[in-house]
Design goal:
By secondary structure, this protein is of the alpha+beta class. The protein folds into 3 domains: about 35-225, Alpha-Beta Complex (Adenine-n6-DNA-methyltransferase TaqI, Chain A, domain 2), CATH 3.90.220; about 250-315 and about 505-540, no CATH class; about 330-495, Adenine-n6-DNA-methyltransferase TaqI, Chain A, domain 2 (Alpha-Beta Complex). The strands form 8 sheets. Strands 2-8-5-6 form a 4-stranded antiparallel beta sheet. A 4-stranded antiparallel beta sheet has the order 14-22-19-20. Strands 4-3-7 form a 3-stranded mixed beta sheet, with helices on one face. Strand 16 (about 385-390) and strand 17 form a beta hairpin. Helix 10 (about 230-275) packs antiparallel against helix 11 (about 280-290), helix 13 (about 300-315) packs across helix 17 (about 455-465) and helix 13 (about 300-315) runs antiparallel to helix 19. It is elongated. The two termini are about 20 Å apart.
Length: about 550
């Protein structure tokens, strides 16, 4: 059962939360009656507040919250319930106005600077020393304090682990406390534990279309269970040891998946390699892959690798048999348009031909979006983001003015291939006429083939060229890559007889459907493992 649980999606993350949940319920380590009770810590917390002159905020309906928490689980011997307002000496936040940013100065910390789980000043922005001095009078983070996400990403808490001075943005809360009351590492664990997360959910405002937020005044009312200081030490040691063990479990799981992916990749790569050079070896290795298909497609990544190798085999002529009676493209293409064998990227059947896109298709870019110049009737058009591999996403289709004189030139017809010029250059799909009237923007190439090309086969060739990197030699730019009209027109594609193209696509449809079923089975297995994990954790917590 543990093997099943460890392979569940997010299993290690759930187990980490489970450990913290147990810890903050007093069920991870034993209680020791010799420990000084936590009630003494409340007295020390009050003394610390009084010493610093920290104002005590009235916590609204605190007794009702205590009763609610006590009902959630039995409070262990020696523990007490309290609030952050009573246990801390300072709860504040950072600058409420956007400061002046400079190239050199004092680090200015926002939530992103501790999103990894620990504070890092490596990529902060900087503010002037004078501005920092003013902010630091109210909000003065120092080593041993807690920083907590207060706006947007709420509740994530980290320890300040540096003596470097820095200022905070308003999205970050600062919590200072007596280390005689709570050990810093214990307090960090407490704030990141499920019971405290539930409290944050109680007090947060926002949600939906509004940004989540924890108000400072409400943070004072967060109820927590506090153990004796000696038990805090034992909890920290136990949690750290358990987390180290879970780190090893996660590392082993990742390595197992990497090995599986390498096995799949090498097996499929060998299949593709043999496809063009060794017929007998190809047949033998094909049998090996089929016999081990379950092992080769155990994860989503491996299933997609299988989908990729099918495309590789399809464009190399190894997916269906050739038929000598079918009209070869060599019979209707001028010899000048066929690339000789010296320029072939890989071997293809004799009845096929290597040709450039520009020799067999007509490509053009769509209409440039220019609000100042565009005139005409507002019409729906496709952008780069609407084109996915082999399909379209029409959930966000925009409109732009198109004149009547442009309609014939820019209107899409069933069978048109739309190819992304930027973003992911080469990504393409065949327009299927799902809407009777649709146009396209300049970020897309439209390719039409007068004869001899199945548009879906052409998209398959583009997908393979994108996977193996061949399309990159036709792309310009480094940071922002573009597949220009010239680059697309010069791309070499392997062209089989048209009837063979149809048979290739029919075979791919069948095989891809099988792959979709495999992927669904993986999803069902993952869901089963996830339900098993949650059931085990629920039973474990429910018995506490």
């Amino acid at each position: 059962m543990m093997d099943q649980i460890s392979e569940a999606p997010g299993a290690v993350l759930e187990l980490r939360r489970f450990v913290l949940d147990l810890a903050m319920r007093g069920k991870l380590v034993d209680q020791d009656p010799q420990d000084e009770p936590a009630s003494e810590l409340l007295r020390k917390a009050k003394e610390a507040k009084d010493k610093l002159g920290a104002a005590r905020r009235p916590v609204r309906q605190a007794s009702r919250r205590f009763a609610s928490q006590e009902n959630r689980f039995k409070l262990p011997s020696g523990w007490v319930l309290s609030t952050l307002g009573d246990l801390t000496v300072k709860i504040t936040d950072g600058a409420h106005k956007t400061p002046t940013y400079v190239d050199k100065g004092v680090p200015f910390v926002s939530v992103k600077d501790f999103s990894s789980g620990s504070l890092s000043l490596a990529s902060t922005r900087f503010i002037p020393y004078e501005e920092h001095a003013q902010l630091y009078k109210r909000c003065d983070p120092r080593r041993g304090d807690i920083l907590i996400g207060r706006i947007g990403t709420i509740g994530k808490a980290v320890l300040v682990n540096t003596d470097v001075e820095f200022s905070l943005f308003v999205s970050v809360g600062l919590i200072r406390f007596s280390h005689e009351v709570m050990l810093p590492e214990f307090f960090r664990m407490l704030l990141n534990s499920p019971p405290t997360e539930a409290e944050f959910d109680r007090i947060k405002i926002g949600g939906g279309t509004h940004t989540n937020k924890l108000n400072l005044s409400d943070l004072h009312s967060v109820v927590v269970a506090l153990p004796p200081i000696a038990e805090q030490e034992r909890i920290v040691a136990k949690v750290q040891a358990t987390m180290e063990l879970l780190d090893k479990v996660e590392a082993a799981r990742v390595e197992k998946r990497k090995l599986g992916n390498r096995f799949t990749t090498s097996s499929f790569a060998k299949l593709t390699e043999l496809a063009g050079s060794d017929v007998a070896g190809f047949v033998e290795h094909s049998r090996f892959c089929m016999d081990n298909l379950t092992r080769l497609t155990a994860t989503d990544e491996q299933v997609e690798a299988a989908r990729g190798v099918l495309g590789d085999l399809a464009v190399r002529g190894r997916l269906v048999q050739q038929n000598e009676a079918e009209e070869s493209p060599r019979e209707w293409l001028d010899d000048s348009k066929i690339v000789d064998s010296a320029g072939e990227p890989y071997s293809i059947p004799e009845s096929w031909a290597w040709v450039r896109v520009g020799e067999i298709g007509v490509a053009r870019l769509g209409k440039m979006l220019d609000k100042a110049k565009n005139r005409g009737v507002s019409r729906r058009y496709l952008r780069n983001v609407n084109v996915r591999w082999f399909d379209f996403d029409l959930s966000d289709v925009r409109e732009m003015p198109i004149e009547d004189s442009e309609v014939e030139v820019l209107a899409l017809e069933p069978g048109d291939v739309l190819v992304c010029e930027g973003g992911e250059p080469g990504r393409a799909a065949v327009w299927d006429g799902r809407e009777t009237e649709m146009y396209f923007q300049k970020a897309l190439h439209r390719v039409r083939f007068p004869r001899g090309v199945d548009p879906r086969y052409f998209v398959t060739v583009l997908r393979v060229a994108a996977r193996d990197g061949r399309i990159l030699s036709h792309v310009t730019g480094v940071t922002f890559k573009h597949l220009t009209g010239r680059g697309l027109s010069s791309l070499l594609i392997p062209l089989p007889p048209l009837l063979e193209q149809h048979r290739i696509m029919q075979r791919l449809d069948i095989l891809n459907h099988s792959i979709d079923l495999l992927k669904a089975e993986i999803g069902v297995a993952d869901s089963s493992r996830d339900r098993l994990l949650r059931a085990v954790l629920h039973d474990a917590i429910g018995g506490i």
